[in-house]
Write a structure and sequence with these properties.
4-stranded parallel β-sheet; 378 residues; binds iron/sulfur cluster; binds ligand V47; 15 helices
């Protein structure tokens, strides 16, 4: 385990620059740091310093708690009208034979497999195809709720919703109301990638813009609903692009307060059009978690998604601002394993998750999707 210093020790350090001392003082005073200070942290903050700041904030917000949930994924299709350069998962419509495309009945069958298990959430996302339209998803959500009303549906992102609503010629407001009335409970954080227009065009051209992604979350929050936010990092973006991404999220969160967790997603380079781009180091992953915790002062939770980052790094991340590691997953998602993530068959029992968290001296808490405590494992 990498030990982090406490903030007082950091402030006493003779080697620290005036700028880094000033930022540490702001964190001690619970003051917000600026855009330029965020970039400065990426450029000059070394790991121990960042860990001390992030840990200080994490302990104030979440004590020693580490959250997880019992969930599984359903990926309705891996065929996609888009061709994001980082995506190892999607198959173009013309390569249909390599893809899958589930019907409403097939998705319900996948959900029924968990009937005798105490899962609390189904996480649903995947490719975008014309057939899986407004009518498809409203019928699907309604039937899931008829079958198992207590199962939280966390499904689709503004990438899918923007496409579906445009095709159905309904406004974002009307569309999101239809989804909520059909049974949608919350939105996962995907599709955010990186908000900067130039980089977004290069890696995820054609899909919803940053402004559209943010508008759909804003409308959803204003309906009293909650969601998450991600950031795909470690590819061709700069540090300033990462801070710009966080800044836009911080501004929306100030307006609505509807985001639960921020989830940095490390770019994985296997089997995609960006395989020539090297992956960043684990040190950079930890620095990125820490800076996310410092910058996003109005987000309650920072999640390291263990299926993507691997068990050891997710354990390390718990000393760098992270307080959530996602769920049991039960080997039901292919998005990351196909892109080269360590976990090729992501699946952890509750006992394994508890053990992983306890090994680093933290307190595991099983939560529901909206962070209501279910069980604390002292
Ligand atoms: O938007 C796809 C990412 C996201 C790669 O809300 C990749 O609780 C890295 O959003 N390397 C979808 N990342 C997944 C997602 C998510 C995951 C876990 C929890 C939650 C939550 C949300 O996966 C996409 C994209 O940014 N992704 N390919 C890749 N090669
Ligand atoms: Fe389609 Fe999503 Fe893959 Fe982009 S990341 S190609 S939208 S499945």
């Amino acid at each position: 385990m990498i030990a982090t210093q406490n903030l007082e020790e950091i402030m006493d350090s003779a080697h620290l620059s005036t700028d880094l001392k000033h930022i540490a003082q702001k964190v001690m005073n619970a003051e917000r740091i600026s855009f330029d200070e965020g970039v400065h942290l990426f450029e000059h903050g070394e790991l121990g310093y960042l860990g001390a700041l992030a840990n200080h904030i994490r302990e104030k917000k979440n004590g020693a708690y580490v959250y997880f949930n019992r969930n599984f994924h359903v990926e309705p299709t891996n065929i996609c009208v888009y061709t994001c350069a980082f995506c190892a998962y999607s198959r173009l419509i013309k390569q249909r034979e390599e893809g899958w495309e589930l019907s409403v009945d097939q998705i319900l069958d996948a959900i029924k497999k968990y009937d005798d298990q105490p899962v609390t959430e189904v996480h649903m996302t995947g490719g975008v195809i014309p057939k899986q339209d407004l009518q498809f998803y409203t019928e699907l959500f309604r039937r899931i709720k008829e079958h198992r009303p207590g199962l939280h549906i966390k499904a689709l992102t503004p990438v899918e919703y923007h496409y579906i609503f445009k095709k159905a010629k309904v406004s974002y407001e009307e569309g999101m109301k239809l989804m909520r009335d059909a049974g949608l409970d919350s939105m996962p954080g995907g599709g955010a990638e990186i908000f900067d227009a130039e980089i977004r065009e290069k890696i995820a051209g054609g899909k919803c813009s940053a402004e559209e992604w943010l508008a759909i979350h804003e409308i959803w929050h204003k309906m009293g609903m909650q969601s998450n936010a991600t950031m795909l990092y470690g590819h061709i973006e700069t540090f300033a692009h990462r801070i710009d991404h966080m800044e836009r999220l911080r501004q929306l969160q100030d307006k609505t307060g509807g985001f639960n967790a921020f989830i940095p997603l490390k770019f994985r380079n296997k089997n995609n059009q960006m395989s020539h781009v090297a992956e960043v180091s684990v040190i950079e992953d930890l620095r990125n978690y820490a800076i996310s915790r410092i910058y996003l002062d109005n987000f309650d939770h920072i999640k390291s998604y263990w299926a993507m980052i691997g068990r050891s790094t997710s354990q390390l991340s718990l000393n760098f601002g992270v307080d959530d590691i996602d769920g049991t997953i039960d080997d039901t998602t292919k998005i990351y394993s196909m892109a080269g993530a360590e976990e090729q068959t992501p699946k952890m029992s509750t006992a394994e998750l508890i053990e992983l968290i306890k090994q680093v001296g933290k307190i595991p808490v099983e939560r529901d999707t909206l962070y209501q405590k279910i069980v604390e494992y002292n």
